[in-house]
Design a protein that fits this description.
19% of the residues lie in helices and 57% in strands. It has 166 residues and is an alpha+beta fold. It comes from Mediterraneibacter gnavus.
Length: 166
């Protein structure tokens, strides 16, 4: 009886190990295939991607953080967001948003859209937009962030990884 329990225990452990190995190996291979990096952005199969400028080097006298994101939003659509936060009320806080499409033949990003949003006498500005895009390409978002009391304004940037739109 003890031998039977021991054999059953070993068999169950082997089955569990086999199941875990077979489930995780394909996922590892898939993520290794999707790690191409172009101009700082990885090409991914994720549903969304976000980027931020927040680190000690980009924080300044006025800018606290700049951020942007891209999200799949249905068939051939993406949702794009960007925001700039100052650490106090400033004369101008602004963001410029760029939407890029990956061009495989050139191994580079090409800009397909951009817009700007400003706020005066405020500490925060944000903008978002739904965009219809061509399927079968990777898309990413870049953003420039500005804040300050007078020109030249303090600036930083953020960008996302690329996401595939099928």
């Amino acid at each position: 009886m003890k031998i039977r329990k021991k054999m059953l225990s070993v068999f169950c452990a082997a089955m569990l190990l086999g199941t875990i190995t077979s489930v995780t190996v394909p996922q590892v291979q898939a993520s290794e295939e999707q790690t191409k990096k172009v101009d700082g952005s990885y090409l991914t199969m994720q549903e969304s991607a976000s980027g931020t400028s927040q680190d000690e080097d980009t924080r300044g006298q006025y800018i606290m953080v700049g951020e942007c994101s891209i999200t799949k939003a249905g068939r051939n659509r993406i949702y794009v967001y960007s925001g700039t936060t100052a650490n106090r009320t400033v004369n101008l806080v602004s963001t410029i948003v760029y939407v890029d499409q990956y061009i495989e033949e050139k191994d580079a990003w090409g800009q397909i859209d951009f817009w700007r949003k400003d706020a005066e006498n405020d500490y925060f500005v944000s903008t978002s937009k739904y965009i219809t895009v061509e399927p079968g390409y990777y898309y990413r978002v870049r953003a420039d962030h500005f804040a300050g009391m007078q020109y030249p304004y303090e600036s930083t940037y953020s960008f996302t990884d690329g996401i595939m739109i099928k």
